[in-house]
Structures are given as structure tokens and as C-alpha cells.
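Notes from hallway chat w/ T.B., transcribed later so I don't forget. T.B. wanted the structure written out for a chain they're using in a teaching module, and asked if we could keep both sequence and C-alpha cells in one place. Agreed to drop them here.
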Amino acid sequence: MIRGKLFFAAGLLASLSAGWLGFPSMLYERVPQPLDFNHVAHTEKASMSCQDCHSLKEDGTFSGIPKVESCAACHAEPMGTTKAEKLLVERYVKPQREIPWLVYSRQPQNVWFSHASHLKLAKFECTECHGGHGKTRHLRPFERNRISGYSRDIWGPSISRIGAGRRPGMKMDDCIDCHRANHREHSCIECHK
């Protein structure tokens, strides 16, 4: 009787462990970005800042990912020898076709996020939420949740969030924690329009 319970407990523990470790790899599919992008080449070699490509418009809305016409200002012809730049010019700049970037931080339609209030009023740096993304030499694959379609960045690097640290993702709880820490609690309607 005790032996049967031990086997059951060991089997249950093994099954739970396999699910805990294997579920995230089954839940997310890795999708490559349409082009490789080197932020370092733009920020260090070309001395550009985040705001040169990702800026606030005059009305305070965020421009998001730049349009291909912004890229064309410098890349009408390849400036370097990389395969990614050649693809940029041939596939997107010359035919004036937008690059179908997969957005790591895309939120549900019922969420309204103001970059202006965070950048201008709260004086946040881009790295507060986006980490070292602006210092990357290559874009990492987009990890899409097979069920929701959203990026893994929304949840954060770990489903358990154990040891994830401060602001591990872009879920509502992360926003609420940050607002509370900065004494900026608001009503639901502030973010859900």
C-alpha cells in the first residue's frame, strides 16, 4: 500500500515537473523577424538615439516602429555590406513596402498606453521598460504565444515569475506595481479606453 502511494507520488511529481519545464517550450513558437537589425550600428556608429527612429509626434502619440521612408532617408542604397541591409534596400526601401516587424510589446486592443506620459511626465528612460534592447547587435526571435498570439515579452521571461526581479514583463500587474511604487495609482479607465 505504501509502495503504491510512493510510486503514485513519484509519478505525479515527474509529470508535474515535465509539464512545468516542457509547457513553456510547447506554448511559444519562435518566429524570426523579417530582417536582422543592428541597434549598435545605429546608436554607436551613426550616433543616433532611440528618439531618432522611435519618437513622439507633435500630438504626443508615439510613432512606434519607424516607417520605411525613415529608413530610406539613409538607406536609399546599401551603405555597408551586410545581407540584412541589402535585403532592406531591395525588398522594402526601393519598392516602398513597409517592413512587417513582429512587435514584442504589442498590447491587447483594450489597453491604451501613453509613451508621452511615461517619457515626458515620469521622465522614464526607454531602458526602464525595454531593457537593453537598444544595445543589441541582432534581433532575437519573436516568441509568440500559440494560444493568445501575444509576445512572450508581455508575460516576461518566466511563466512562474520566480526570481524574475522588478518589472519582468508588460502585464497589467507589472504596470500596477510600477504605478504603486511611483505613487501614481489611477482608475482603470486611465489605461483601458
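Follow-up for T.B.: The mean pLDDT is 85. Might be a good example for the class.
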